[in-house]
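Example with several molecule types.
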Amino acid sequence: MSREIAVLGAGMHPWGKWGRSFVEYGTVAARAALADAGLEWQDIDSVVGADTVRSGYPGYVAGATFAQALGWQGARVTSVYAACASGAQAIGAARAQILAGLADVVLVVGADAAPKGFFAPAGGDRPDDPDWLRFRVLGATNPAYFALYARRRMAVYGDTAEDFALVKVKNAAAGLLNPMARYRKAVTAEEVAASAVVADPLRLLDICATSDGAAALVLCSMEFARARGVTDPVRIRAVSTVTPVYPRTVLDLPDIATDSAVAVEPAAGSFRSSIARAAYEEAGLGPEDLSLAEVYDLSTALELEWYEDIGLCGEGEGAKLVREGATALGGRVPVNASGGLASFGEAVPAQAIAQVCELTWQLRGTAGERQVPGARAGITANQGLFGHGSAVVAVR
Amino acid sequence: MERARTPVVGGWFTESGPDGEFRLLGTRCSACGSVFFPREDTFCRNPGCRGGELAEVPLSKRGRVWSYTDGRYRPPAPYVSDPDVPWEPYTLLAVELAAERMVVLGQAAPGVTVADLAVGMEVEVVPGVLDGDTATEPVRTTWRFRPVGVDG
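Resulting structure tokens for the full complex:
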């Protein structure tokens, strides 16, 4: 496959609430990825930073911020913002540069220092900003949207709060084995049920926390990898960054309403499923080929939806899959073997990169106690605010 | 003296719709018929439409519950609430408007809790007050959803 690129290095700063700058986290992750790749920072042709908009001005120009912290060395630089999809877009930008021959080896970094509590839009009165409006007019936080999806699943598919809790129990059990995870503690269904309701029907332990954290990758051309003596690297075969197709008929962050379907018949399937479909088409494989998946479990209920959207099961069958244990470690196709956002929390520009770090370690067979035996192919899936798709397919 | 009443956002609803009642206001493209809420006044967003006039149109008064939830914790700014007053959860509804084939989000009328709601239930849009409870501020008006047949 001539359109593949190699993952030469992966690194993270542990997730948590560390109270330091996103620059520090990103630099730690970058140095870890460089060491993993066996490269010096001066060997890097290009650096791509995934932006955060909550860490002050430097966050808007993350590529240069990380380049300065590592020491200016004249590399090509790119900064990208796509909310939760920022990391995937950073990987996409790096891949495009490599495939276009503009760079042989690229460092991708995403890091964040998250505020306490609910995410909120940047300050000031901005009534032309849909994200500002949904807070100002409705007080509609991110968990409110997750809860709307969860309630809808209960009404349409018969999912129960107990089904949702199983996702948390499963992801906590995996995160327990991950030294990079913020929460490394088993959680029981009873503990989920005993936690406070945040947005009915979702409870505190159904919803991911906001965290500090960072992740980085060193990506390169297949020729560069071979020249370094790496003959069988983890390869990225697809990066999906698609937008929805009009009319989008499922209410989504940060919108107050869906598109109207009076003029145009909606396309089959959801936006989320189109993200994965684009990745599968580009990679030339399908859900039946997966050894594992990393999906964006902003809420427990949302993880069940991703099972359906990435094609692990039919519509409405997500809860059945988690009940059967198919998506747990040791199951048919483990999902969020890393522990997921349930164990990491959300460090927005880092998370899509962290998902690919996990695929890398799993496909190399170096994921330790949480290793999925014989992993050969994996997908990541995620979605950014304002209609940003994000999925990556990696193979070995 | 009665305090000023100001819509939380201008042009999104009217107190005097076609039947003299409260209505949400959207816009409709004269070329393709797409309806937009919140109102789209510059360009039609249907990618297959070459663009028409976007005229103001009142939305359906009634719809059916697509989903619902509540907010048990105080939302951050720019939501306006008094930090010295204990937080009262609000109920949030996503409502399907059949004629417009769209889902619109809104807070429920005061007193409507998640226990009063079910997916598919018929609701109607009614006027409401969002905030401005202190003597010095204008009252910010908004829209609310309320189950059909319930007074309040």
